Each structure stands twice: as structure tokens, then as C-alpha cells.
Amino acid sequence: MNPSQPEDLSKDSQYSGRVQVLEPETGRSTLRITNLRESDSSEYHFKFKTRRFEWRSVLPGTTLTVTALQVQVTRIISVHQSQTEAELKCLSSCSPAGRLYVWFKNQQRIRTQQTSTLTDNFSPGDTVSCAFSGHEDYRSPSVYPPKLPSVSVSPSGEIVEGSSGTLTCSSDANPAANYTWYKENQTLSQGSDGVLAFISISFNNSGNYYCKSEN
Fold it and tell me: Which domains does the chain have, with CATH numbers?
């Protein structure tokens, strides 16, 4: 972090339990980092010490780039009653040239697809992820449409006129869902938090409320 005051990685909380210095032979030292994270991308340096002398190179260090994969929906081609045709892209922070990709639909490998783009038909319950070929165990987080939303009321029980209260809509989705609240067929609010708040509830607020989640 500070070139003039280098810090021992083994004492850095971000690397706690993940770094090990191996010295299999005299004159050679190896730094091993396990459970790599994208935040580990950096330039790494070393120094060595004897009882009378300390030396640290002023040359550029060793650059480590750790990539994280992410699936992004780039285009909705058509929407049918039970299926959506869409184009998906597998994105990485370093996008290495010439890499082959592996796509997974509902945890099953799509063997015909090896490029960073996938066009396919998707049902409401499908999950999709991607990986680099040869690194199938390190997949991107899965993307999937919202599950059936649930609604909670606070405070629960009897609502007294003049009091405050909230309706909260939530749904498991990746990417995160946006929510729309309706009273009967009237749109009330839209947003990412799914909360419909009442400052001072009146009798006119009585009715049937619904929420919709989409991503």
C-alpha cells in the first residue's frame, strides 16, 4: 500500500490465513496465495534481510491479475408465454484473448457453445453461469429470474388509523430485482428496495395490494 513502508502480507488482515512463504531451497523463496480474490490483483514485491543487511529491489514487482467472471444479459430477442429468447455475455475483468468459454444451464454444460456470447431460450426457472475452459470449477455467479415474490406487513396485526406502516416485497433474483407496487390495478411505486411506506394510514388506504418483481 505504501512503497516507502512495505507491510508483511502475512500480517495484512485481507490476506489472513491465505498467504504462505515457502523456501524449498537456499536462495529461492515462493509466495503462495490461496483462495484468490479479484482484490488480490496488484503488484507484488519482496525484500530479504540478513543480520547485517536489508535489500529491497527498486525494479517493478510481479504483477498478478485475478479475473472474476460475470454473466450479463445483453439483449432480449423475444418474449413468449413460457420462454424468453435472450443473448448473454460472459464478462471478465481482464478478458484474455483466445480463451474458450464454457456455459452452464441449470448446472449442465452446454457443449456446443465455446464463445463469450450465448443466445438461447430460457424458462422462468433456469439458471445460467459461465467459466473459462479448463477452469470449470471457478464459475461465475448464476443469473436467474426472480422467484415468486413474498410480502410482509409491519407492524403485523390490526392497523390503527393515523399510525404508520410499511409493506415490503422481496424476491430472490440475480441480478437483484426491481419492484412495482399496485393497489387494485393502480401503480403506486417502483424501486429497488420493494418498500411501500405509509406515514399516516387512513381508511382510504384499505384495499388489496400487489407487488411485481423483475430483473
Answer: 9-64 (no CATH), 69-132 (no CATH), 150-214 (2.60.40.10)
